[in-house]
Design goal:
There is one protein chain. By secondary structure, the protein is α+β, with helices and mostly antiparallel strands. The chain starts with 12 loop residues before the first strand and ends in an 8-residue tail after the last helix. The strands form five sheets. It has a six-stranded mixed β-sheet with strand order 2-1-6-3-4-5, sandwiched between helices. It folds into three domains: 195 residues, Aldehyde ferredoxin oxidoreductase, N-terminal domain (Aldehyde Ferredoxin Oxidoreductase,  A, domain 1, 4-Layer Sandwich), CATH 3.60.9; 161 residues, Orthogonal Bundle (Aldehyde Ferredoxin Oxidoreductase Protein, subunit A, domain 2); 210 residues, Orthogonal Bundle (Aldehyde Ferredoxin Oxidoreductase Protein, subunit A, domain 3). The protein is 40% helix and 12% strand. It is built from 27 helices and 17 strands. Helix 2 crosses helix 19. The model has no long low-confidence stretch (mean pLDDT 93).
Amino acid sequence: MKGALRGGYTGRVLEVDLTTRTVSDYPWSDNDRRATFGGKIMAAQILYDRLKAGTDPLGADNIVVISTGPLNGTGAPSTSRFNVSALSPLTGIVASSNCGGSFGVYMKKAGIDALVIHGAAAAPVWLEVADADITFHDAGDVWGMRTTEAQEALAATIEEKAGTLVIGPAGENGVLYASLHSDERAAGRTGMGAVLGAKNLKGLAAHGTQRVEIADKDAFRAHIKKWSATLKSHPMTGDLLPKYGSGGFLPEMQKLGIVATSNFRRGRFKDASKISGQTMAAGRLVSTMGCLSCPIRCGRVVEVDGRRVKGPELETLVLLGSNLENSDLGLICELNLLLDELGMDTMTAGVTISLAMELVERGKVDWSLGFGDASGLAELIQDIAYRRGIGDELAEGSRRLGARYGASAYAMNVKGLELAAYEPRGAVGHGLGYATSNRGGCHLNGGYVVALEGLGVRMKGRSTRGKAGLTAMFQDLMEAVSAAGACLFTTYAVLPAPLVRGAKGPVGVVTRGVLSVSGGLLHVLRGLPRGLLGIPLPLLPHLRAMELVTGERIGFGRFWEVGERGYTLERELALRFGVTASDDTLPDRQLNERLDEDDPNSVVPIEKLRTDYYRHRRWDSEGRPTSKLRDQLGIEATRRS
């Protein structure tokens, strides 16, 4: 038995039963912490242990896990991220949503690593988390409030500074893609807000004075100083993102033809320059903002109706912009604010609306909607939040809307979750990530291989070479980084600066060549005992930060293995709720409609990619992790009682 961890955790996990209004300690040992780190992997383990097949996502038996990682609250760069996981009402499978607001840090200050919430309150409540305890408050007076007003109301009842997390009207009304909000940040995807709404839980506020212990304080301070300097000097995290935000990627995406346009029918938008981060910086940017302890400051601040608010990020710019053929940047800023205040995912909203526009175009419905016509979008979004008129249908998301009108072939989702901003026919590794992502059409849970195919190293986007192994590895490593409590944008700086913008000459040629043939090596490495990969990896500063905080030697092999274990746990949960190999695919449009009429390779060859991917993952031909793999990763075949 290993000794106790020396830092990074408060040591308390609380279980809250909303039905009985009782609170108890949830058993969580140091060995559990070693196996999961925290965050989404911790949540996956708890849900694997406790959640039964057939559970109703909007029922009292659904379990919500709000969890932090060991780097939260340490001051390490960009480590305010916390995770919310539950059975998703949008997808029907277990899913997670990540948020950069302050709530997670304040939960650590309150002496809590995670909350496990189940049951349903008889009337609206909100929870106060302080000094490792929970107080139930009546939420009748805040029910119905928008997210900013609700957060202000909760914070006003507490004398000291607190972190808040709330739902808006969309969550209260059961919109299946309702979000949670902490400060101006959102746990946006998969409908976690609807789950809290069904439980009559308006939100939470956390406060306290507890400090996170750090095993080696002096070495840690030196490490984070160096890490911050690296982020500030890197061309992506120190230049492009601070200057232009994630919307700064748009010009490069346009050049490569991977901008989702007109419900993903095209990869380029004629007015892409009008909605880019560069245009926002030139004409609308008031200032920049960042999450707690973040030196990158990718957040945009814009003015809407005389109010300084968070500006739209890349996914919103594309999915409410080019995907609707809407080039009005000012309107996108307004819609982004409206969706945030109502508590709704901008991404699913944008893709669902684009499907509705195509339904009109195809004569399947007679609604006042159309590509290029943004005149009624604000009213439509409010109708969705309050489930009025056609908004009631759009509140169900694109998968249900497409099925209702015989239009599933152009409902742009995977496993019920709408695709992100990147058109995958020009970046097939990214398409494989969408198809195999455990939560559905997610660019981040999918591994974000587009960083190699388009936004950085410039591997050939339509080539399959090396993509399966890289996708699987990136998924695992991003899982581990997220579980540690760090922002995934920090991983941009893992790529050496010369490669970030597509290195030219011999260096770029050699790098792309090595990556394209990396599949065999990655497959061999996966089969080795991870203890043999205990090498330090300076390019991955998250790993060293974890070691200095917890006081434990981790090494690259174990870091990768924890990520793989998390991804495999999520897959086991997906299988429990009915996912099969046939669900690891893309919409028909990406498989059978050429992005380029003259190029037969401008579709995603999903069958070949999926076969290679399963082989790398050591899953069987039906997409099921083998018993040998589960044994190696320490995943029990049955749930713990």
